[in-house]
Design brief:
Blueprint (H helix, E strand, L loop, with lengths): L11 E4 L4 E3 L2 E3 L2 E4 L2 E8 L2 E4 L4 E8 L1 E4 L2 E14 L4 E13 L4 E7 L2 H4 L7
Length: 123
């Protein structure tokens, strides 16, 4: 527990509307997406996909809040919140999943201890 990073919320990365990244991203702090990403995102903090945000690829993060669209996979080690405007088409692995009425989820989900495992720990 002592080695866990605590995000202060003071530092974060953002991809604004109208921006697009194709490739892999690694972030040590929270990441908000209001543009488009085609590729993989590995984030040590929280990932927020805003209502205008689109991700096509794989996300690995501690926590996530989806208000936009995710097409692909997400491995969220703690809590994933799928908001009413959010859409997921793909595979979800998480410790805890919150889905608001109106959200769209098409795919598979693994939850609890198995869902929260980090990819390197899987057997």
């Amino acid at each position: 527990m002592a080695n866990e990073k605590q995000q202060s919320g003071l530092m974060f990365n953002a991809l604004t509307a109208g921006s697009k990244i194709v490739g892999s991203i690694t972030a040590d702090s929270d990441f908000r997406i209001d543009g488009m990403i085609e590729g993989d995102l590995n984030c040590s903090g929280k990932v927020v996909i805003g209502e205008a945000g689109r991700v096509k690829g794989t996300i690995v993060c501690q926590n996530a809040e989806i208000l936009g669209l995710l097409e692909g996979k997400i491995n969220c080690h703690q809590q994933l919140s799928l908001r009413a405007s959010g859409k997921i088409h793909g595979e979800v692995m998480t410790k805890t999943l919150i889905v608001e009425p109106g959200a769209l989820f098409n795919g598979s989900c693994a939850m609890g201890a198995a869902g929260a495992e980090k990819p390197a720990e899987k057997k």
